[in-house]
Structure formats: C-alpha cells, structure tokens
Design brief:
about 350 residues; mainly alpha; 14 helices; about 60% helix; ADP-ribosylglycohydrolase family protein
C-alpha cells in the first residue's frame, strides 16, 4: 500500500526540491577536478549552494517532464487517451523553445508562460540534437547511442506513476527520448522505480535499492552491476569507518549508470534525514558530473524523508521553489487520488 496521501504529497514536493538543491550545489563545480574544487572552495570543497541558487537544464527538464506527465494523466482521466511518452516528448519540445527565444509568446499558457524558464543553462548537445528531430525515438528505435547522465536526471516524475512497473517503463522511455544507449535509458527507468518505491510505496532505502537492482538486471546487467557496486562500497564504508565518501571508485558520473550509482552509494552512506546536506556535499565534491550526481541524491533523499530534511537556508535562495513545490505535489496527488487543479494541465 502507498504511504498516507499527505505524506506522499510532501515527499513529491521534497523530491523535486531536493533534486534542485543538489543541482544548484553541484553546478558551479561540475566541470572541475577535485583539486580545482578545493582550490576554489577550500579543503572540504563546496559546502552550500550559491545565492541565488540557480539550477541547470537538469531541473528545467525535470519540470517539463512533470508537466508533460501530468498533462497526459489529466487527458487520460478526462478523455481516456493515455500516451504519456508522446505528451512528454511534446513537453520537451516546448522546453527547447525556451532555450531559443528570450521570452514567452503573447498568450502562452502553462510552463512556457513562465519567464524564469527562458534561460539557457548550458544544456547538453545530445539533448538539443535529439529534441530537434522530427519524431521521438524509443529504446527500440534510438536516434543515438549516448548513455550520458542527462537522461536519468529528469526522470524522477515518472516515479509517481500508478505502479512500479509503469514507473520503470516510463522512466526508460522518457530517458530514451534523448539518450539511446542502453545505460542511458535503463538508468532512467531504474531511477524512476527507486523514486516510486521510496515516495509512493514507502519502502526502506536498502530494500528499494535491492528491488531496483533485481529489475534492472533483466534489462541491462552492466547498469545492475554498477548499482550493486554502489551497495558493496557503502557496506565497506560503514564496516571500515572511512572518514570521507570515495565516489570516484564508481566513476565520474558523466554516464547515467555511474551518476545513479554515485547517488545511491552516497544515500546508503548518509541515509538519515539529518544527513541531507552531508550527502549532497559528498555527491557534489568529486571530479565529474557534480550537478547530476548531487541532483539525483537530492531527489532520492527528498522522496525518502520529505521536506523536513531540506535545509531551510538552502531553500531560501533556491529559484523556482513555487513551481517545484506545486508540480511535485501534483504528481503525488495524481498517484494518491487527491484533487488538484486539472486546468493547469489541460
């Protein structure tokens, strides 16, 4: 059974907010090596998001994933038509417009009416090229072979699908709209499934991770083995009492499987609600995709613990808090059967 509806709504909001906090924390150091991060931010690295805490394209696309999924859900409820992959593809194409022009067109509605989203945050070429195509790709008919991390970083909203299997399938297919390499889309499905198990089903973190690994093993042994290494390294960390988290053993985080494995490893080492800030710092301070790994970590911990885990002073400087809170809450309301304003997604 799902968690109590009110708790799910809180976790839905916290999932998107936590991901945005991690994104903003890691963004200033995402292209720096560890030595350069220490040079610029001190021996412990970056410790808190800048003010204002600006998100990257990862959070922008997460918002458009959520908006697209909710539009598909509302259409399904009102007309019986259910095609979330196509609707999310169209939502991503609307995001692409925000990267090409300076402001909304007169009469724009929905997310594309929000001037704050008309800001280019150095989106990846893989996403830009994929979304410029005439038709949406799929795992069965990919347009490229990329397994980059920008596929997995936006699939958290799929975790609020009605069932675990639907969450996994949609996560895979949403990621495959831009990333055709097996690891690029399987990691998207794995992440969506993990969010579903934590936020909606209320599973403990280790049980949820084990279930994800078992499901992913049927699709991609490489991604499953990468996640299993994250678990093994976390067990070693606890057993040997290491002072710092060594995420570099799992890679740089530039690919989907590596980024998700780093996030899972960090959460298993820092699973408590009070450890949110420490977990995000561990996920951001390494040589690699710091914004992606910290964003995924924030999504997971938000889904696990709710808004009480989020540092208030960090939230105070975060942009788009209202959108993240509303869309995260509405995702949760859709899966728990609570009322929300359907006209926003008509």
């Amino acid at each position: 059974m799902p968690r109590e509806p009110v708790n799910v709504v809180d976790r839905g909001a916290a999932c998107l907010l936590g991901g945005a906090l991690g994104d903003a924390l890691g963004a200033p150091v995402q292209y720096l090596g560890w030595a350069d991060i220490q040079r610029d931010h001190g021996p412990r690295g970056v410790l808190e998001p800048p003010r204002p805490a600006l998100v990257t394209d990862d959070t922008q696309l997460t918002l458009f994933t959520a908006d697209g999924y909710l539009r598909a859900w509302v259409r399904g409820q009102t007309t019986g038509e259910w095609d979330p992959v196509d609707v999310v593809w169209r939502s991503y194409r609307r995001w692409l417009v925000t990267q090409q022009v300076a402001a909304p067109e007169p009469g724009a509605t929905g997310l594309v009416a929000d001037e704050r989203l008309y800001s280019s945050r150095s989106p990846g070429l893989t996403c830009l090229r994929a979304l410029a195509a005439d038709s949406p790709p799929s795992p069965e008919q990919p347009h490229n072979e990329s397994s980059g991390c920008n596929g997995v970083t936006r699939t958290a909203p799929a975790g609020f699908a009605p069932s675990a299997e639907i969450a996994y399938d949609l996560g895979c297919r949403f990621a495959a709209l831009t990333h055709g390499g097996t690891g690029g889309w399987v990691s998207g499905g794995a992440f969506a499934l993990l969010i579903h198990l934590l936020a909606v089903r209320g599973r403990p973190i280790r049980e949820a991770v084990d279930q994800v690994i078992g499901r992913v093993l049927r699709s991609d042994p490489y991604t499953a083995n990468t996640l299993n290494r994250a678990v093994v390294f976390a067990e070693e960390h606890r057993a040997q009492g290491f002072e710092s988290v060594r995420v570099d053993r799992l890679g740089s985080g530039w690919t989907g499987p590596e980024a998700l494995a780093i996030a899972v490893h960090v959460v298993l080492v820092h699973p408590k609600r009070s450890q949110f800030a420490d977990a995000l710092r561990a996920a951001a301070n390494h040589s690699g995709g710091s914004d992606a790994t910290a964003a995924l970590t924030g999504n997971i911990l938000g889904a696990l613990h709710g808004t009480a885990a989020l540092p208030r002073d960090w939230l105070a400087g975060l942009e788009l808090v209202d959108l993240l809170t509303r869309l995260g809450g509405d995702l949760a309301r859709s899966v728990t059967g609570q009322e929300f304003d359907l006209h926003r997604y008509a």
